[in-house]
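tokens incoming
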């Protein structure tokens, strides 16, 4: 797909981190970008910087996502590009003993479901509603109507201790990539997923420097955290390269996560 000012895009999670970097990279090509995020202040700031539009959206809500697409399409027209970066995580062991008193507990189901609802169901909700809109577009070169990029994680394949919910949600995103690409192949919409390793985003900002240094040292090569612009580069490559479809790609400096 040729990215220029004839193209509109929606980036979920675009107020921060990987999504913000992708929103900036798309806008640098002239693309009209709408940001879907919970974080109003940060989202509005990124939108203002790139001349885009901010939509306060919670990806777990049908009404909220519908209202977001309505606002984005009123401003820019039907999007040809969707990048799903909205996501979150938690860390709880499936079952464990408390250090203090040896009492036994398990992963609370509402906490498990919360991550699944945002990362997996939220991603699918945005894909389904965006693809339905893309079906109304005129096909371009090769009959292409749209391109979708999702964000999983290397935790989809090598999840660590405490990551049952996060890994399940991201494994779900990886698992649905090919069937969704197949669902949409007759309509000229491509779907790909990126599995980031350890990236330097606000998600990690709270971690103390020694922890960040240890994480960087654990990457085979290069020995540093991933840069959000590197994620954005791959997302744009997937969108611009017409033969890229139904694929899940790790972007991780060669890392394979240890149990902890
Ligand atoms: N940073 C990493 O190392 C890393 C590694 C692997 C995967 N990922 C994934 O990449 C994606 C982006 O992460 P990031 O590192 O940029 O984190 P981030 O926290 O900087 O950005 C995530 C954004 O998603 C938004 N969001 C969360 N829940 C939402 C909801 N219900 N509705 C709408 N927006 C919501 C947040 O407000 C935030 O702006 C996530 O899916 C994350 O799981 C990140």
């Amino acid at each position: 797909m040729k990215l220029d000012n004839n193209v509109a895009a929606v980036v979920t999670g675009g107020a921060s981190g990987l999504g913000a970097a992708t929103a900036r990279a798309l806008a640098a090509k002239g693309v009209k970008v709408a940001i879907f995020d919970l974080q109003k202040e940060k989202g509005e700031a990124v939108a203002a910087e790139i001349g885009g539009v901010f939509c306060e959206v919670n990806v777990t809500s049908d009404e909220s996502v519908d209202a977001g697409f309505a606002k984005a399409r009123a401003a820019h027209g039907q999007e040809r590009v969707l990048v799903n970066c909205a996501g979150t995580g938690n860390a709880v062991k499936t079952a464990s003993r408390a250090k203090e008193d040896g009492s036994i507990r398990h992963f609370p189901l509402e906490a498990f479901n919360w991550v699944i609802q945002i990362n997996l169901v939220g991603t699918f909700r945005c894909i389904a509603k965006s693809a339905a809109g893309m079906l109304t577009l005129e096909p371009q070169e090769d009959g292409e109507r749209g391109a979708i990029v999702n964000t999983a994680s290397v935790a989809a394949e090598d999840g660590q201790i405490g990551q049952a919910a996060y890994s399940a949600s991201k494994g779900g995103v990886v698992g649905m990539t090919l069937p969704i690409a197949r669902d949409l192949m007759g309509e000229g919409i491509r779907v790909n997923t990126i599995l980031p390793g350890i990236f330097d985003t606000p998600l990690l900002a709270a971690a103390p420097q020694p922890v960040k240094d240890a994480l960087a040292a654990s990457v085979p090569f290069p020995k540093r955290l991933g840069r959000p612009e590197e994620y954005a580069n791959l997302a744009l490559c997937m969108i611009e390269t017409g033969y890229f479809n139904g694929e899940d790609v790790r972007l991780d400096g060669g890392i394979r996560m240890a149990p902890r």
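note: Residues 8-251 form a domain with the Rossmann fold fold (CATH 3.40.50.720).
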